[in-house]
Write a structure and sequence with these properties.
Chain lengths: 245, 245
Amino acid sequence: MQFDGAQNGALPLMTRACAPQSCDQCGVRDRAICADLSETDRDALSRIGRRVTLHAGQTVMWEGDDSMVVANVIEGTLKLATSTGDGREQIVGVVYASDFIGRPFGARTPHSVTALTDARLCLFPRGRFDGFARDHGDLQHRLLQRTLDDLDRTRAWMLLLGRKTAREKVATFLLDMARRLQADPTGTIELPLSRQQIADILGTTIETVSRQMSDFKRRGIIALVGRRGVRLVDGAALEALAEGV
Amino acid sequence: MQFDGAQNGALPLMTRACAPQSCDQCGVRDRAICADLSETDRDALSRIGRRVTLHAGQTVMWEGDDSMVVANVIEGTLKLATSTGDGREQIVGVVYASDFIGRPFGARTPHSVTALTDARLCLFPRGRFDGFARDHGDLQHRLLQRTLDDLDRTRAWMLLLGRKTAREKVATFLLDMARRLQADPTGTIELPLSRQQIADILGTTIETVSRQMSDFKRRGIIALVGRRGVRLVDGAALEALAEGV
DNA sequence: CCCATGCATTGACCTCTGTCAAACCGCCGG
DNA sequence: CCGGCGGTTTGACAGAGGTCAATGCATGGG
Protein backbone atom coordinates (compact mmCIF):
# COMPACT_ATOMS: atom_id res chain seq x y z
CA MET A 1 0.00 0.00 0.00
CA GLN A 2 1.14 3.44 -0.88
CA PHE A 3 0.57 6.68 0.97
CA ASP A 4 1.21 9.85 -0.93
CA GLY A 5 1.83 13.08 0.84
CA ALA A 6 -0.86 15.30 -0.58
CA GLN A 7 -3.85 13.49 -2.07
CA ASN A 8 -5.61 16.65 -3.08
CA GLY A 9 -5.12 16.45 -6.79
CA ALA A 10 -6.54 18.69 -9.45
CA LEU A 11 -7.83 21.61 -7.46
CA PRO A 12 -4.51 22.98 -6.17
CA LEU A 13 -3.17 22.68 -9.70
CA MET A 14 -5.62 25.31 -10.81
CA THR A 15 -4.66 27.69 -8.07
CA ARG A 16 -0.99 27.25 -8.78
CA ALA A 17 -1.20 27.86 -12.52
CA CYS A 18 1.28 30.49 -13.55
CA ALA A 19 0.67 33.27 -15.99
CA PRO A 20 1.08 32.03 -19.56
CA GLN A 21 4.70 32.23 -20.55
CA SER A 22 6.39 31.68 -23.84
CA CYS A 23 8.25 28.54 -24.81
CA ASP A 24 11.46 30.54 -25.27
CA GLN A 25 12.88 29.72 -21.87
CA CYS A 26 11.40 26.22 -21.72
CA GLY A 27 14.09 23.74 -20.74
CA VAL A 28 12.59 20.86 -22.68
CA ARG A 29 11.44 22.55 -25.86
CA ASP A 30 14.02 20.69 -27.98
CA ARG A 31 13.15 17.29 -26.53
CA ALA A 32 9.40 17.40 -25.84
CA ILE A 33 6.85 16.45 -28.48
CA CYS A 34 6.45 20.09 -29.47
CA ALA A 35 10.10 20.28 -30.60
CA ASP A 36 9.34 19.96 -34.32
CA LEU A 37 6.61 22.58 -34.43
CA SER A 38 7.08 25.87 -36.24
CA GLU A 39 7.32 28.92 -34.00
CA THR A 40 3.75 29.92 -34.86
CA ASP A 41 2.35 26.48 -34.17
CA ARG A 42 4.25 26.18 -30.93
CA ASP A 43 2.87 29.49 -29.78
CA ALA A 44 -0.62 28.35 -30.69
CA LEU A 45 -0.16 25.15 -28.69
CA SER A 46 1.36 27.11 -25.84
CA ARG A 47 -1.75 29.25 -25.64
CA ILE A 48 -3.88 26.12 -25.20
CA GLY A 49 -1.82 25.02 -22.23
CA ARG A 50 -0.66 26.45 -18.95
CA ARG A 51 2.36 25.97 -16.69
CA VAL A 52 1.64 24.22 -13.42
CA THR A 53 3.76 23.50 -10.35
CA LEU A 54 3.47 20.26 -8.40
CA HIS A 55 4.79 19.18 -5.03
CA ALA A 56 6.22 15.73 -4.38
CA GLY A 57 3.34 13.40 -3.55
CA GLN A 58 0.65 15.29 -5.42
CA THR A 59 -1.47 13.25 -7.79
CA VAL A 60 -2.41 14.79 -11.14
CA MET A 61 -4.74 12.08 -12.44
CA TRP A 62 -6.37 9.03 -10.95
CA GLU A 63 -6.79 5.60 -12.49
CA GLY A 64 -10.17 5.29 -14.14
CA ASP A 65 -10.88 9.03 -14.15
CA ASP A 66 -12.20 10.73 -17.24
CA SER A 67 -9.22 11.77 -19.33
CA MET A 68 -9.38 15.56 -18.92
CA VAL A 69 -5.79 16.71 -19.31
CA VAL A 70 -2.50 15.74 -20.91
CA ALA A 71 0.86 17.39 -20.25
CA ASN A 72 4.53 17.73 -20.99
CA VAL A 73 6.85 17.26 -18.04
CA ILE A 74 9.05 20.33 -17.87
CA GLU A 75 10.89 19.35 -14.72
CA GLY A 76 10.79 16.61 -12.10
CA THR A 77 9.95 12.93 -11.91
CA LEU A 78 6.51 11.30 -11.75
CA LYS A 79 5.18 7.79 -11.42
CA LEU A 80 2.36 6.07 -13.34
CA ALA A 81 0.59 3.43 -11.27
CA THR A 82 -2.31 0.97 -11.21
CA SER A 83 -3.64 -1.03 -8.29
CA THR A 84 -5.76 -4.06 -7.55
CA GLY A 85 -9.07 -3.72 -5.72
CA ASP A 86 -7.43 -4.60 -2.43
CA GLY A 87 -4.72 -1.98 -2.68
CA ARG A 88 -1.68 -3.76 -4.09
CA GLU A 89 0.06 -1.21 -6.29
CA GLN A 90 2.17 -1.64 -9.40
CA ILE A 91 4.12 1.27 -10.83
CA VAL A 92 3.78 0.95 -14.62
CA GLY A 93 6.06 3.79 -15.60
CA VAL A 94 8.34 6.56 -14.36
CA VAL A 95 8.46 9.77 -16.37
CA TYR A 96 11.12 12.45 -16.49
CA ALA A 97 11.57 15.95 -17.88
CA SER A 98 10.47 16.20 -21.56
CA ASP A 99 8.20 13.14 -21.32
CA PHE A 100 4.54 13.31 -22.16
CA ILE A 101 1.80 12.21 -19.75
CA GLY A 102 -1.92 11.57 -19.95
CA ARG A 103 -4.15 9.68 -22.34
CA PRO A 104 -4.83 11.59 -25.56
CA PHE A 105 -7.61 10.32 -27.86
CA GLY A 106 -9.23 8.26 -25.12
CA ALA A 107 -11.99 8.70 -22.60
CA ARG A 108 -10.29 7.18 -19.55
CA THR A 109 -7.02 7.60 -17.76
CA PRO A 110 -5.82 4.02 -17.32
CA HIS A 111 -3.41 4.77 -14.46
CA SER A 112 -2.74 7.39 -11.83
CA VAL A 113 0.01 9.99 -12.26
CA THR A 114 1.77 11.19 -9.11
CA ALA A 115 4.75 13.48 -8.61
CA LEU A 116 7.72 11.77 -6.98
CA THR A 117 9.68 15.00 -6.73
CA ASP A 118 8.52 18.58 -7.03
CA ALA A 119 7.67 19.03 -10.69
CA ARG A 120 6.54 21.46 -13.33
CA LEU A 121 4.15 20.56 -16.12
CA CYS A 122 2.89 22.18 -19.30
CA LEU A 123 -0.75 21.14 -19.01
CA PHE A 124 -3.34 20.97 -21.81
CA PRO A 125 -7.06 20.27 -21.73
CA ARG A 126 -7.27 16.94 -23.51
CA GLY A 127 -10.01 17.88 -25.96
CA ARG A 128 -8.16 20.94 -27.23
CA PHE A 129 -4.86 19.05 -27.36
CA ASP A 130 -6.48 16.25 -29.36
CA GLY A 131 -7.89 18.75 -31.82
CA PHE A 132 -4.55 20.46 -32.21
CA ALA A 133 -2.73 17.15 -32.67
CA ARG A 134 -5.17 16.02 -35.37
CA ASP A 135 -4.36 19.11 -37.36
CA HIS A 136 -0.60 18.82 -36.91
CA GLY A 137 0.90 15.71 -38.42
CA ASP A 138 4.34 16.51 -37.03
CA LEU A 139 3.08 16.57 -33.48
CA GLN A 140 1.11 13.40 -34.00
CA HIS A 141 4.11 11.68 -35.53
CA ARG A 142 6.27 12.66 -32.61
CA LEU A 143 3.62 11.42 -30.20
CA LEU A 144 3.45 8.13 -32.11
CA GLN A 145 7.23 7.73 -31.96
CA ARG A 146 7.18 8.36 -28.25
CA THR A 147 4.29 5.96 -27.66
CA LEU A 148 6.02 3.24 -29.66
CA ASP A 149 9.17 3.75 -27.58
CA ASP A 150 7.13 3.64 -24.36
CA LEU A 151 5.52 0.40 -25.53
CA ASP A 152 8.92 -1.13 -26.26
CA ARG A 153 10.23 -0.13 -22.84
CA THR A 154 7.09 -1.36 -21.12
CA ARG A 155 7.29 -4.73 -22.84
CA ALA A 156 10.94 -5.05 -21.88
CA TRP A 157 9.85 -4.41 -18.29
CA MET A 158 7.33 -7.25 -18.52
CA LEU A 159 10.26 -9.63 -18.92
CA LEU A 160 11.65 -8.31 -15.65
CA LEU A 161 8.32 -8.63 -13.85
CA GLY A 162 7.48 -12.07 -15.18
CA ARG A 163 10.81 -13.81 -15.38
CA LYS A 164 13.56 -12.21 -13.34
CA THR A 165 14.57 -13.06 -9.78
CA ALA A 166 14.60 -10.47 -7.00
CA ARG A 167 18.37 -10.08 -7.35
CA GLU A 168 18.13 -9.54 -11.12
CA LYS A 169 15.28 -7.10 -10.63
CA VAL A 170 17.15 -4.88 -8.18
CA ALA A 171 20.37 -4.97 -10.22
CA THR A 172 18.45 -4.09 -13.40
CA PHE A 173 16.69 -1.28 -11.60
CA LEU A 174 19.91 0.26 -10.31
CA LEU A 175 21.50 0.14 -13.77
CA ASP A 176 18.39 1.70 -15.28
CA MET A 177 18.45 4.55 -12.77
CA ALA A 178 22.18 5.10 -13.29
CA ARG A 179 21.56 5.44 -17.01
CA ARG A 180 18.72 7.93 -16.50
CA LEU A 181 19.99 10.04 -13.63
CA GLN A 182 22.94 12.41 -13.50
CA ALA A 183 25.57 11.30 -10.98
CA ASP A 184 27.17 13.91 -8.71
CA PRO A 185 31.00 14.43 -8.68
CA THR A 186 31.50 11.45 -6.35
CA GLY A 187 29.56 9.19 -8.74
CA THR A 188 26.56 9.02 -6.46
CA ILE A 189 23.01 9.13 -7.80
CA GLU A 190 20.02 10.31 -5.81
CA LEU A 191 17.08 7.94 -6.32
CA PRO A 192 13.80 9.79 -6.80
CA LEU A 193 12.04 6.79 -5.23
CA SER A 194 11.55 5.38 -1.75
CA ARG A 195 12.19 1.68 -1.08
CA GLN A 196 8.44 1.09 -1.18
CA GLN A 197 8.20 2.72 -4.60
CA ILE A 198 11.14 0.68 -5.88
CA ALA A 199 9.31 -2.43 -4.68
CA ASP A 200 6.18 -1.22 -6.50
CA ILE A 201 8.18 -0.89 -9.71
CA LEU A 202 9.82 -4.28 -9.40
CA GLY A 203 6.76 -6.22 -8.29
CA THR A 204 8.31 -7.26 -5.00
CA THR A 205 8.39 -6.05 -1.38
CA ILE A 206 10.30 -3.35 0.45
CA GLU A 207 12.10 -5.98 2.55
CA THR A 208 13.33 -7.87 -0.50
CA VAL A 209 14.61 -4.66 -2.12
CA SER A 210 16.38 -3.73 1.09
CA ARG A 211 17.92 -7.17 1.52
CA GLN A 212 19.22 -7.24 -2.05
CA MET A 213 20.73 -3.79 -1.75
CA SER A 214 22.36 -4.66 1.55
CA ASP A 215 23.75 -7.76 -0.10
CA PHE A 216 25.18 -5.78 -3.03
CA LYS A 217 26.70 -3.39 -0.52
CA ARG A 218 28.22 -6.23 1.52
CA ARG A 219 29.80 -7.56 -1.66
CA GLY A 220 31.25 -4.13 -2.47
CA ILE A 221 29.24 -3.74 -5.68
CA ILE A 222 27.43 -0.60 -4.59
CA ALA A 223 27.71 1.93 -1.76
CA LEU A 224 24.67 3.34 -0.01
CA VAL A 225 24.85 6.99 1.02
CA GLY A 226 21.97 8.19 3.15
CA ARG A 227 18.47 6.97 2.35
CA ARG A 228 18.26 7.82 -1.32
CA GLY A 229 21.88 7.86 -2.48
CA VAL A 230 23.59 5.00 -4.33
CA ARG A 231 27.07 4.81 -5.83
CA LEU A 232 27.76 2.05 -8.33
CA VAL A 233 31.19 0.78 -7.38
CA ASP A 234 31.38 -2.23 -9.68
CA GLY A 235 29.11 -1.64 -12.64
CA ALA A 236 30.27 -4.73 -14.49
CA ALA A 237 29.38 -6.97 -11.54
CA LEU A 238 25.96 -5.33 -11.41
CA GLU A 239 25.46 -5.98 -15.13
CA ALA A 240 26.30 -9.60 -14.54
CA LEU A 241 23.83 -9.88 -11.67
CA ALA A 242 21.16 -8.19 -13.79
CA GLU A 243 21.61 -10.91 -16.40
CA GLY A 244 21.34 -13.65 -13.82
CA VAL A 245 24.99 -14.73 -13.97
CA MET B 1 12.19 -22.66 -22.58
CA GLN B 2 10.08 -22.70 -25.68
CA PHE B 3 10.27 -24.91 -28.71
CA ASP B 4 8.45 -23.73 -31.77
CA GLY B 5 7.51 -26.10 -34.51
CA ALA B 6 9.14 -24.54 -37.52
CA GLN B 7 12.02 -22.17 -36.77
CA ASN B 8 12.63 -21.31 -40.38
CA GLY B 9 11.39 -17.75 -40.41
CA ALA B 10 11.52 -15.24 -43.18
CA LEU B 11 12.54 -17.32 -46.15
CA PRO B 12 9.45 -19.52 -46.41
CA LEU B 13 7.33 -16.41 -46.15
CA MET B 14 8.73 -15.25 -49.45
CA THR B 15 7.95 -18.49 -51.16
CA ARG B 16 4.43 -18.54 -49.84
CA ALA B 17 3.53 -15.00 -50.86
CA CYS B 18 0.31 -15.07 -52.84
CA ALA B 19 -0.44 -13.09 -55.95
CA PRO B 20 -1.40 -9.51 -55.07
CA GLN B 21 -5.08 -9.37 -54.38
CA SER B 22 -7.40 -6.49 -53.76
CA CYS B 23 -8.65 -5.47 -50.35
CA ASP B 24 -12.25 -6.05 -51.44
CA GLN B 25 -12.50 -9.50 -49.96
CA CYS B 26 -10.27 -8.74 -46.99
CA GLY B 27 -11.95 -9.88 -43.78
CA VAL B 28 -10.39 -7.21 -41.61
CA ARG B 29 -10.53 -4.17 -43.87
CA ASP B 30 -13.07 -2.42 -41.63
CA ARG B 31 -11.11 -3.06 -38.45
CA ALA B 32 -7.43 -2.88 -39.47
CA ILE B 33 -5.51 0.39 -39.50
CA CYS B 34 -6.24 0.82 -43.20
CA ALA B 35 -10.00 1.05 -42.52
CA ASP B 36 -10.18 4.85 -42.80
CA LEU B 37 -8.25 5.13 -46.06
CA SER B 38 -9.94 6.20 -49.27
CA GLU B 39 -10.27 3.50 -51.89
CA THR B 40 -7.40 4.98 -53.89
CA ASP B 41 -5.10 5.20 -50.90
CA ARG B 42 -5.97 1.71 -49.77
CA ASP B 43 -5.14 0.38 -53.21
CA ALA B 44 -1.83 2.21 -53.13
CA LEU B 45 -1.01 0.75 -49.73
CA SER B 46 -2.15 -2.65 -50.90
CA ARG B 47 0.33 -2.51 -53.76
CA ILE B 48 3.17 -1.93 -51.29
CA GLY B 49 2.26 -5.06 -49.36
CA ARG B 50 1.70 -8.68 -50.10
CA ARG B 51 -0.44 -11.46 -48.62
CA VAL B 52 1.49 -14.15 -46.81
CA THR B 53 0.48 -17.46 -45.22
CA LEU B 54 2.01 -18.74 -42.01
CA HIS B 55 1.89 -22.10 -40.29
CA ALA B 56 1.52 -22.49 -36.54
CA GLY B 57 4.98 -22.24 -34.98
CA GLN B 58 6.58 -20.15 -37.70
CA THR B 59 8.42 -17.04 -36.55
CA VAL B 60 8.05 -13.88 -38.61
CA MET B 61 10.55 -11.66 -36.77
CA TRP B 62 13.16 -12.21 -34.10
CA GLU B 63 13.94 -10.06 -31.11
CA GLY B 64 16.76 -7.64 -31.88
CA ASP B 65 16.55 -8.10 -35.64
CA ASP B 66 16.58 -5.11 -37.93
CA SER B 67 13.01 -3.97 -38.34
CA MET B 68 12.37 -4.94 -41.97
CA VAL B 69 8.64 -5.57 -42.18
CA VAL B 70 5.38 -4.63 -40.55
CA ALA B 71 2.02 -6.30 -41.16
CA ASN B 72 -1.68 -6.48 -40.58
CA VAL B 73 -2.97 -9.76 -39.21
CA ILE B 74 -5.72 -10.93 -41.55
CA GLU B 75 -6.40 -14.22 -39.81
CA GLY B 76 -4.97 -16.26 -36.96
CA THR B 77 -3.30 -15.63 -33.61
CA LEU B 78 0.35 -14.74 -32.97
CA LYS B 79 2.50 -14.17 -29.92
CA LEU B 80 5.03 -11.42 -29.21
CA ALA B 81 7.87 -12.55 -26.95
CA THR B 82 11.17 -11.53 -25.36
CA SER B 83 13.64 -13.69 -23.50
CA THR B 84 16.54 -13.42 -21.09
CA GLY B 85 20.02 -14.46 -22.13
CA ASP B 86 19.58 -17.85 -20.51
CA GLY B 87 16.35 -18.65 -22.33
CA ARG B 88 13.57 -17.70 -19.95
CA GLU B 89 10.76 -16.43 -22.15
CA GLN B 90 8.05 -13.88 -21.49
CA ILE B 91 5.17 -13.42 -23.90
CA VAL B 92 4.57 -9.66 -24.07
CA GLY B 93 1.50 -9.71 -26.29
CA VAL B 94 -0.94 -11.87 -28.19
CA VAL B 95 -2.32 -10.50 -31.44
CA TYR B 96 -5.46 -11.43 -33.33
CA ALA B 97 -7.07 -10.76 -36.69
CA SER B 98 -7.05 -7.03 -37.61
CA ASP B 99 -4.16 -6.25 -35.25
CA PHE B 100 -0.96 -4.64 -36.46
CA ILE B 101 2.48 -6.13 -35.89
CA GLY B 102 6.07 -5.00 -36.29
CA ARG B 103 7.97 -1.88 -35.32
CA PRO B 104 7.31 1.07 -37.64
CA PHE B 105 9.61 4.11 -37.38
CA GLY B 106 12.32 2.20 -35.57
CA ALA B 107 15.45 0.32 -36.47
CA ARG B 108 15.02 -2.75 -34.26
CA THR B 109 12.30 -5.28 -33.63
CA PRO B 110 12.14 -5.38 -29.84
CA HIS B 111 10.46 -8.80 -29.62
CA SER B 112 9.92 -11.90 -31.67
CA VAL B 113 6.62 -12.55 -33.49
CA THR B 114 5.53 -16.17 -33.85
CA ALA B 115 2.33 -17.71 -35.20
CA LEU B 116 0.36 -19.67 -32.59
CA THR B 117 -2.15 -20.89 -35.16
CA ASP B 118 -1.98 -20.93 -38.93
CA ALA B 119 -2.23 -17.30 -39.95
CA ARG B 120 -2.42 -14.90 -42.85
CA LEU B 121 -0.71 -11.53 -42.91
CA CYS B 122 -0.74 -8.47 -45.10
CA LEU B 123 2.99 -7.75 -45.05
CA PHE B 124 4.73 -4.45 -45.85
CA PRO B 125 8.40 -3.56 -46.15
CA ARG B 126 8.89 -1.25 -43.20
CA GLY B 127 10.61 1.57 -45.08
CA ARG B 128 7.86 1.87 -47.64
CA PHE B 129 5.16 1.56 -45.00
CA ASP B 130 6.80 4.31 -42.92
CA GLY B 131 6.90 6.57 -45.94
CA PHE B 132 3.26 5.90 -46.76
CA ALA B 133 2.19 6.46 -43.15
CA ARG B 134 4.02 9.80 -42.99
CA ASP B 135 2.02 11.01 -45.95
CA HIS B 136 -1.31 9.78 -44.63
CA GLY B 137 -2.40 11.39 -41.40
CA ASP B 138 -5.45 9.15 -41.09
CA LEU B 139 -3.33 6.03 -41.15
CA GLN B 140 -0.90 7.49 -38.67
CA HIS B 141 -3.71 8.56 -36.39
CA ARG B 142 -5.20 5.10 -36.46
CA LEU B 143 -1.79 3.59 -35.72
CA LEU B 144 -1.38 6.01 -32.81
CA GLN B 145 -4.78 5.06 -31.40
CA ARG B 146 -3.90 1.41 -31.64
CA THR B 147 -0.48 1.89 -30.06
CA LEU B 148 -2.01 3.87 -27.19
CA ASP B 149 -4.53 1.07 -26.64
CA ASP B 150 -1.73 -1.52 -26.73
CA LEU B 151 0.20 0.48 -24.18
CA ASP B 152 -2.82 0.66 -21.87
CA ARG B 153 -3.38 -3.09 -22.14
CA THR B 154 0.29 -3.81 -21.63
CA ARG B 155 0.42 -1.65 -18.51
CA ALA B 156 -2.66 -3.36 -17.14
CA TRP B 157 -0.85 -6.66 -17.68
CA MET B 158 2.09 -5.39 -15.64
CA LEU B 159 -0.20 -5.31 -12.62
CA LEU B 160 -0.93 -8.98 -13.19
CA LEU B 161 2.73 -9.88 -13.59
CA GLY B 162 3.97 -7.86 -10.66
CA ARG B 163 1.22 -8.12 -8.11
CA LYS B 164 -1.17 -11.01 -8.71
CA THR B 165 -0.96 -14.50 -7.26
CA ALA B 166 -0.87 -17.59 -9.47
CA ARG B 167 -4.58 -18.19 -8.86
CA GLU B 168 -5.48 -14.62 -9.81
CA LYS B 169 -3.27 -14.81 -12.87
CA VAL B 170 -4.90 -17.95 -14.25
CA ALA B 171 -8.42 -16.72 -13.48
CA THR B 172 -7.68 -13.37 -15.16
CA PHE B 173 -6.22 -15.15 -18.16
CA LEU B 174 -9.27 -17.37 -18.64
CA LEU B 175 -11.64 -14.40 -18.42
CA ASP B 176 -9.49 -12.49 -20.91
CA MET B 177 -9.57 -15.37 -23.37
CA ALA B 178 -13.32 -15.83 -22.93
CA ARG B 179 -13.81 -12.17 -23.80
CA ARG B 180 -11.62 -12.40 -26.90
CA LEU B 181 -12.52 -15.79 -28.30
CA GLN B 182 -15.82 -16.96 -29.74
CA ALA B 183 -17.36 -19.82 -27.73
CA ASP B 184 -18.88 -22.79 -29.56
CA PRO B 185 -22.59 -23.77 -29.03
CA THR B 186 -21.72 -25.63 -25.80
CA GLY B 187 -20.02 -22.53 -24.40
CA THR B 188 -16.56 -24.00 -24.83
CA ILE B 189 -13.61 -21.93 -26.02
CA GLU B 190 -10.58 -23.34 -27.78
CA LEU B 191 -7.41 -21.80 -26.36
CA PRO B 192 -4.87 -20.88 -29.06
CA LEU B 193 -2.10 -21.51 -26.52
CA SER B 194 -0.41 -24.50 -24.95
CA ARG B 195 0.05 -24.67 -21.18
CA GLN B 196 3.67 -23.64 -21.64
CA GLN B 197 2.61 -20.57 -23.59
CA ILE B 198 0.01 -19.68 -20.98
CA ALA B 199 2.76 -19.91 -18.36
CA ASP B 200 4.94 -17.64 -20.55
CA ILE B 201 2.14 -15.07 -20.64
CA LEU B 202 1.48 -15.18 -16.90
CA GLY B 203 5.10 -15.23 -15.78
CA THR B 204 4.76 -18.57 -14.08
CA THR B 205 5.37 -22.27 -14.84
CA ILE B 206 3.43 -24.90 -16.73
CA GLU B 207 2.93 -26.89 -13.52
CA THR B 208 1.42 -23.95 -11.68
CA VAL B 209 -0.97 -23.22 -14.55
CA SER B 210 -1.98 -26.85 -14.68
CA ARG B 211 -2.52 -27.05 -10.92
CA GLN B 212 -4.66 -23.92 -10.83
CA MET B 213 -6.82 -25.11 -13.70
CA SER B 214 -7.26 -28.52 -12.11
CA ASP B 215 -8.25 -26.75 -8.91
CA PHE B 216 -10.84 -24.59 -10.71
CA LYS B 217 -12.19 -27.74 -12.35
CA ARG B 218 -12.37 -29.59 -9.02
CA ARG B 219 -14.37 -26.67 -7.64
CA GLY B 220 -16.77 -26.81 -10.60
CA ILE B 221 -15.83 -23.32 -11.82
CA ILE B 222 -14.58 -24.46 -15.20
CA ALA B 223 -14.71 -27.64 -17.28
CA LEU B 224 -11.74 -28.85 -19.29
CA VAL B 225 -12.54 -30.47 -22.62
CA GLY B 226 -9.59 -32.07 -24.36
CA ARG B 227 -6.24 -30.30 -24.25
CA ARG B 228 -7.18 -26.86 -25.44
CA GLY B 229 -10.87 -26.59 -24.61
CA VAL B 230 -12.26 -24.73 -21.59
CA ARG B 231 -15.88 -24.05 -20.61
CA LEU B 232 -16.50 -21.37 -18.02
CA VAL B 233 -19.17 -22.88 -15.78
CA ASP B 234 -19.23 -20.22 -13.08
CA GLY B 235 -18.02 -16.94 -14.54
CA ALA B 236 -18.86 -14.94 -11.43
CA ALA B 237 -16.72 -17.20 -9.25
CA LEU B 238 -13.88 -16.80 -11.72
CA GLU B 239 -14.24 -13.00 -11.62
CA ALA B 240 -14.02 -13.18 -7.86
CA LEU B 241 -10.88 -15.33 -7.98
CA ALA B 242 -9.34 -12.95 -10.53
CA GLU B 243 -9.80 -10.10 -8.05
CA GLY B 244 -8.23 -12.08 -5.26
CA VAL B 245 -11.41 -12.63 -3.25
C1' DC C 1 20.98 20.95 18.96
C1' DC C 2 18.24 17.19 20.12
C1' DC C 3 14.46 14.43 19.93
C1' DA C 4 10.61 12.20 17.58
C1' DT C 5 8.79 10.37 13.51
C1' DG C 6 8.83 7.53 9.72
C1' DC C 7 11.58 5.07 6.52
C1' DA C 8 14.93 1.42 6.21
C1' DT C 9 17.26 -2.64 7.82
C1' DT C 10 17.54 -7.02 9.84
C1' DG C 11 15.78 -11.33 11.71
C1' DA C 12 12.68 -15.37 12.16
C1' DC C 13 9.42 -17.93 10.11
C1' DC C 14 6.34 -19.83 6.79
C1' DT C 15 4.05 -20.33 2.46
C1' DC C 16 3.64 -20.15 -2.27
C1' DT C 17 5.51 -21.47 -6.22
C1' DG C 18 9.37 -23.43 -8.73
C1' DT C 19 11.96 -27.79 -9.60
C1' DC C 20 12.48 -32.51 -10.54
C1' DA C 21 10.36 -36.67 -11.63
C1' DA C 22 6.89 -39.95 -12.72
C1' DA C 23 2.41 -41.16 -14.40
C1' DC C 24 -1.25 -40.04 -17.43
C1' DC C 25 -3.76 -39.50 -21.64
C1' DG C 26 -5.34 -36.96 -26.00
C1' DC C 27 -4.20 -37.10 -30.59
C1' DC C 28 -2.10 -38.48 -34.80
C1' DG C 29 -0.07 -41.78 -37.89
C1' DG C 30 0.21 -46.27 -39.24
C1' DC D 1 -8.10 -49.77 -34.11
C1' DC D 2 -3.90 -49.56 -31.82
C1' DG D 3 0.50 -47.76 -30.33
C1' DG D 4 3.59 -44.19 -29.34
C1' DC D 5 4.69 -39.44 -28.98
C1' DG D 6 4.36 -35.13 -26.77
C1' DG D 7 1.78 -32.30 -24.03
C1' DT D 8 -0.43 -32.44 -19.44
C1' DT D 9 -1.32 -33.69 -14.83
C1' DT D 10 0.04 -35.00 -10.36
C1' DG D 11 3.26 -35.74 -6.52
C1' DA D 12 7.15 -34.80 -3.44
C1' DC D 13 10.30 -31.59 -2.13
C1' DA D 14 13.10 -27.40 -1.65
C1' DG D 15 13.94 -22.70 -1.63
C1' DA D 16 13.05 -17.90 -2.95
C1' DG D 17 10.69 -14.49 -1.33
C1' DG D 18 6.61 -12.78 1.38
C1' DT D 19 4.93 -11.72 6.18
C1' DC D 20 5.28 -10.20 10.75
C1' DA D 21 7.94 -7.98 14.10
C1' DA D 22 11.66 -5.59 16.25
C1' DT D 23 15.53 -2.60 15.84
C1' DG D 24 18.22 0.99 13.62
C1' DC D 25 18.94 5.49 11.96
C1' DA D 26 18.30 9.70 8.69
C1' DT D 27 15.87 13.82 8.64
C1' DG D 28 13.30 17.73 9.85
C1' DG D 29 10.71 20.34 13.34
C1' DG D 30 10.72 22.39 17.75
